[in-house]
Amino acid sequence: MTKNENFKSKITVYVVVCWILAAFGGLMFGYDIGISGGVTAMDDFLIKFFPVVHERKLHAKEDNYCKYDNQFLQLFTSSLYLAALVSSFAASKVCTKFGRKPTILVASTFFLAGAALSAAAQNIWMIIIPRILLGIGVGFGNEAVPLFLSEIAPVQHRGAVNILFQLFVTIGIFFANLVNYGTSKLHPNGWRVSLGLAGVPAGFLFIGSLIITETPSSLIERGNYSKGLKTLKKIRGVEDVEAEFEQIKLASDIAHQVKHPFKELMKPSSMPPLIIAVLLQVFQQFTGINAIMFYAPVLFQTVGFKDDASLLSSVITGIVNVASTLVSVYAVDKVGRRILLLQACVQMFISQIAIGVILLLNLNATNLLTRAEAIVVVFLVCLFVMAFAWSWGPLGWLIPSETFPLETRTAGFAFAVSSNMFFTFLIAQAFLSMMCHLRAYIFIFFAGWILVMFMFALFLLPETKNVPIDVMVERVWKQHPVWKKFMD
């Protein structure tokens, strides 16, 4: 087999069904992201759980930037990501020992439990604990689903298939925004409907986890060679899979020599994919995207929209998010990963600076933006979301899932997931307080990070387009002018 050979495959109905069913893990994650911001903006929810925040919100001359600054309110959102951070390491062990499919089943079970308990909550801790259960589901789902999609996809379509995860995340956010827009009119229990409907994508993921196949890489890694070969033929839709099977088997033999994958990650030769994976997660969160997605209704209320208008504006950003992710599905295997990341940095930087300047000049503690100014802010938010959705959003999950060798793949991806959850937790827990203290400068803060991200992508990020997943070391890391110094 030559290094440039693409393995034979054709796309079958069965493998497409597997892709879609697994990607419901992204739908569940996206729904969790989108639902919390709308719920925390609902008066009925605030009256029941956060009456102090509701009283502050009612004050006519309350500070625009500070009326939602409450640590418990932020904990409602952020607790999910703290739980996901811890559970991702347990998910790594389950993923390696039992496979990707059982890990997805565990995730769906926690999702179902969290959704049911959220809808029945009666006090503040009954609203926090289900978020922790949902967080465990996110930790398991976000560990297993991107790995599953990368391992089951043909090399020439791996980028597009993996981005199905992020596409379903954006669909989940959009669905959550629509739900919140509708349930905000159902008094006094609309928030219960919003939280309980998380059971719908969770149910699809549960059913899907029973239908999908295990990945050939996982089967072969666990010594089930005959089933691995049979599964590989089934998902590739051709009989001639010997070359790909031998490559996976070789990667598995190397993996078996590594008894402690987390210790292996600390070796110099493991540093390039690990550093890239962790920094991608840090930068993904410090674009400011989750601050916008978590708190879009709150943000739009801050800049002068009424409750219904703010929820509708977040629906608009949801549509932009989904449509722009489709651009990435189309482009990622054609133009490559780096071009999308670099272009998006420019667009996001301009958007964040412009939003910051408009708010700095026109929004003080007690006034409102004019209608025209508020519409411009929504347009700039959409421009920002658009760029993120075809770049740092999906590629933040794709690149770490395809760059680790098999022996450290689940352990390395666990670090990526946990890093993502940790910094998502930080942003979710701190954003409303940051907005109170930094005011419009918060957007300048995120713009500064985007500038750093541009330099990172330009000088340190290798291109992985069309490189088979099990030859990344030879074809990518050993060829890169910076990272080759770390390799054996």
Automatic annotation (TrEMBL):
Keywords: Membrane, Sugar transport, Symport, Transmembrane, Transmembrane helix, Transport. It is found in: Membrane. Residues 18-465 form the Major facilitator superfamily (MFS) profile domain. It comes from Dipteronia dyeriana. CDD domains: MFS_STP (cd17361). This is Major facilitator superfamily (MFS) profile domain-containing protein. GO terms for cellular component: membrane. Belongs to the major facilitator superfamily. Sugar transporter (TC 2.A.1.1) family. Its main location: membrane. NCBIfam families: SP. It comes from the Eukaryota. One of its GO terms (molecular function) is symporter activity. The keyword DNA damage does not apply. The chain crosses the membrane at residues 12-31, 72-91, 103-121, 161-179, 191-212, 274-298, 310-332, 339-363, 375-399, 411-432, 438-461. It is a multi-pass membrane protein. InterPro entries: MFS_dom, MFS_STP/MST-like_plant, MFS_sugar_transport-like, MFS_trans_sf, STP/PLT_plant, Sugar/inositol_transpt, Sugar_transporter_CS. Pfam families: Sugar_tr.
